[in-house]
TrEMBL record:
Residues annotated to bind Mg(2+): 239
EC assignment: 4.2.1.24
Organism the protein comes from: Sphingomonas jeddahensis
Similarity section: Belongs to the ALAD family.
Source superkingdom: Bacteria
GO cellular component, one term: cytosol
UniProt feature coiled coil, ranges: none
Full protein name: Delta-aminolevulinic acid dehydratase
Molecular function via GO: porphobilinogen synthase activity; zinc ion binding
Amino acid sequence: MHAAFPALRLRRTRAADWSRRLHRETTLTPADLIWPLFIAEGEGVEEPIASLPGVSRWSVDLIVAQAKGAHALGIPCLAFFPNTPASLRSDDGREALNPDNLMCRAIRAVKDAVPDIGILTDVALDPYTAHGHDGLVDEVGYVLNDATVEVLVGQSLNQAAAGADIIAPSDMMDGRIGTIRSALEGAGHSNVQIMAYAAKYASAFYGPFRDAVGSRGLLKGDKKTYQMDYGNAEEALREVALDLAEGADSVMVKPGLPYLDIARRVKERFAVPVFAYQVSGEYAMIEAAVAAGAADRDAMVLETLTAFKRAGCSGVLTYHAVHAARLLAA
Ligand code: PBG
């Protein structure tokens, strides 16, 4: 005769904190974080972004100060997004090619002051166009593929010449990774990486970002002819396969949390470095829940960021990067 007891008690290893720590399968460190920053014209300028509470645009001098802080916290990489003055936006987005544009000045200043931090630059024309699209549009507003790729090559070379370490095309044009890769090689930038926004969905979660780069009010229509339909997963695998074949060093899935299944499938299928972008709308949702008294910020930040690692991501772009790195240091 024996007492009825479970053959195995999974609660046994959960009973004490030391044991939970010992058995944890996934860990998050500051080295998993990429911090997106918005750049403003001027000096000593900090402009809070209303739809992204806690996030500001900073002028180049203040970006440098932020970069120093991030580096001290062990954050390996920053992502830059410029808020181009309205007077410099045009239908063809030519300011993207200006070697002295806001983006290039920020890259040079940060590389000069903090050479050991990586800089990822977004390649797409939306911060520079008067219509808010990521590329050149025809007379009916359709975004032209091959003509856009030509400009994106120029934008990439401009960023690489300023010192960008990772070129991250977020435009979703066909064929841009291969064209950009060979242009980088031709210009001697063989060690400049490409992180392809490979599976980027046409998403309702980008609203606050468009406020931050000043493109929300300008955008005519939507981005559904180039960004992916959120109902599709197999198409994401095809996008990733193409970008890898064209020479991408790593791939990104975007947005983040609603697309963890995509991140996992990409990792399992291709076994390459996968990054996720926890986008502006996701950040705003967490902050709104905190403001409503419905959630604990610290716990939500650590849980959501760890979930990306558990899904197979090498790292995460997140507006909570500094907050998370501070929590992890404590
Ligand atoms: C631009 C770009 C967008 C984001 C990153 N790069 C917006 C868009 O595609 O409209 C969104 C990031 C975020 O919401 O945090 N090509």
